[in-house]
Amino acid sequence: MSRRSRSTSGRVPLVLLLPALLGLAFLIVPLIGLLAKAPWSTLPGQLFSAEVWQALRLSLVCATAATAVCLLLGVPLAWLLARGGLPGRSVIRAFVTVPLVLPPVVGGVALLLVLGRRGLIGQHLDAWFGISLPFTTAGVVVAEAFVAMPFLVISVEGALRAADPRYEEAAATLGAGRWTTFRRVTLPSIAPGIVAGTVLCWARALGEFGATITFAGNFPGRTTTMPLAVYLALETDPDVAVVLSLVLLLVSVVVLASLRERWIGGLR
């Protein structure tokens, strides 16, 4: 490629540059405003307060548990969508991705109607096993897993579709069973997609609000995660709300920065 063609291809048309800069500013300026309004003088004392650490610990524990649930259920579901050959896969995929566009509050209501003490399944869990999920820490995990699992499923399904099936066929011809092939061949080949989906799933679970407050309520130390704590503090102590928001912002940036190009490649 000549020097002239390289310089021409590197130019950005003005008609695209201006909207792009406006879009960038639209996304970055609110974050700058959050940093500008942060109570830096009292930040250390508020950052190490019991309220902040209690909400942060609960958020980390619940998001990690929800991600584990998503891995346990989502990877097989992704394999079913990518390799299962079932009829109506497009309809199944639509239901799997519904939580991506469904308002989280609606998801929380749906969980209540199914898993509540008088729900379709919840009434039997309560009567037979004495298990009640709403307004408990376990309910937080369920709500977060519900809204976060599509991120994992989509990532892993994309990785499965992009993987070369000839390696699996070769393993089968060598006498490997289906489970051995999946464990020794398929999983290593789609590891980048699984890692990327896991990180995105965890980050989505960490920031979940609507389904959590609807299904699990807001009880400090039991169901009050960081987003819920931000909502409460905004009404009583805005400085604490800003501090909590900064913590969530920092965690989000670290999580997204950890998605290096080799892992993001699993999403393509």
What's a concise summary of this model?
This protein is mostly helical and 268 residues long.
Cα-to-Cα separation, first versus last residue:
27 Å
**Helical segment count:** 15
Largest sheet: none
User: Could you give the order of the helices and strands?
Assistant: HHHHHHHHHHHHHHH
Number of strands: 0
Uncertain stretches: 262-268
**Could you report the average pLDDT, rounded to the nearest whole number?**
83
Name the structural class. mainly alpha
- Using the CA coordinates, give the radius of gyration: 22 Å
Global geometry: globular
How helix-rich are the residues, as a percent range? Answer: over 70%
Tell me what portion of residues adopts beta-strand conformation: under 5%
Per-chain topology:
Elements: H1 3-10, H2 14-36, H3 43-47, H4 50-83, H5 89-101, H6 104-115, H7 122-129, H8 137-162, H9 166-173, H10 178-189, H11 191-206, H12 210-215, H13 226-236, H14 238-258, H15 261-264
Helix pairs in contact: 4-8, 4-11, 5-8, 8-11, 9-10, 11-14, 13-14
Explain what the structure shows:
The chain has 268 residues and is mainly α. Helix content is 77%, strand content 0%. Helix 5 crosses helix 8 (137-162) and helix 11 (191-206) packs antiparallel against helix 14.
Highlighted features:
15 helices; mainly alpha; 268 residues
